[in-house]
Amino acid sequence: MVKTLLVTCFFSIYLLLTSQGQDAPGIQTEVVSQGVSESQKPVESSEANETQSVASSRQELQELSFLDQPDRWVDQKFGPYLDEVTGKVFYSIEVTKDSAGNPVKLPLVVIWLGVAAVIITIYFKFLNFRSWRLAASTIQGKYSAPSDPGEISHFQALCAALSGTVGLGNIAGVAIAVSVGGPGATFWMILVGFFGMTSKFCECTLGVKYRSIEEGKVYGGPMQYLKKGFAEKGMAQLGVILAGLFAFLCIGGSFGGGNMVQANQACEQLVGVLGEDSFLAQNRWAFGVILGVAVALVIIGGIKSIAAVTAALVPFMCGIYMIAGFFVIGLNIDQLGHAIGLIFEGAFAPTAVGGGVIGVMIQGMKRATFSNEAGIGSAAIAHSAAKTKFAASEGIVALLEPFIDTVVVCTTTALVIVMAGTYDDPNLAGVAITSAAFESVIGWFPVILTVAVILFAFSTMISWSYYGVQAWSHLFGRSAKAELLYKIIFCLFVVIGSSLSMQKVFDFSDAMIFAMSVPNVIAMYLLMPKVKDEYTRYLQHVKETDSH
User: Fold this and answer.
1) Given the DSSP bridges, would you call strands 212-214 and 103-107 parallel, antiparallel or unpaired?
2) What is the pTM of this model?
């Protein structure tokens, strides 16, 4: 309870300090507006009109009932507070202007994560480009034994973490990046994905090194290495506070971005296929109940159950999507060279894209960062459960995540969109761009896309439930009752997310996820020498094993 109070006090002080100043655009910058933005609307200078507007708003607030319109009620009651935190986490700075004179902004959290990825990559001498063979051998279990401490295999840990990152962002997010930044955004997305590989290596190595194993159950992730690693540095009190803050943010992110958002978008996609007149459209809670029960059946069994499902689900769902992508690319193979040319040309010499090269670069960086979550610290929780005696072995496995998520899956989506040319259609936005690109070749692709979206959402939810329960246990104790309570709450949020579309809550939960990067990146900077020691130790073990 002491740690809980510390977190509450720390977060309250943060809100108090950040309540002064201007709001900044947050994650909403990822959304392509179909209408006129607030900044473009004419300003009403008439005092009578302003008075009338205020009076109307007050009357609307008084008439609004939670039972009648729960979405709007929540947004209006809590919106200003949620916007304040979201704006601070995704605070953006203007770096250039587009052709119309509008500012092109870059969220500071992207800079925070991007710079960390570059520094860590240089520190480890571009480990991400020279560890492919070692990663493949490690996944196969060549340098570990079934009796090693941990709960799941290297492959299962990789799939569990991948299921938390490979999702809707690979479908809709890439479409947004290409539609706003042009084909050239793909190049910068791939580049940032490569650098993110080393961040994953660093954080997941730390996750295994500082994990705790009690009665065969693993407790790992940033909560552990913030607490234990900082204690080794003589900063125990700071480590406890940052670990508590990370756990608090992780719980909020698991309920929102890792749960409600996924359930909501999966339901939206299914309703889009079945039609607005369908039973599901009028009873979205039913979808939530079915999905919630399916999630419960998996997460009740803990990480072993989650790992078993994701080990089968991730290759299957990625396989469906990638086969469809390769099929479309194959049928348009004569356009592949042209599409690649557009990507490289747009990356360095954009013409019609607002913001020039900088604007294109920003879109690619944002999508890569928001997609693979390198530096967030979430994946380190799943990888901590791997069976191994050498922490760096799991770090080597983890560096494959951004490659699979960003370089492979996201690039496939981008190529299909560029080859189809749907990114230039002003009537399309987000997932509709991707759907139209595939549908241009596969008429019934929306059905496949719906299956993919539901599987992506389901896998993301079960992985984030594990991240959340680990954070919950850190704050409220490692008891079966405490964990069961969290899992029940988590499943209830599946139903809520399917039924309601509380945009401000969704934005806030995304902000909590990316706020996790603040304590996590600080830990990586301070503990990089420990990671290097672990890597040297693992290489020695590899040499000894290969020599026998």
Assistant:
1) unpaired
2) 0.80
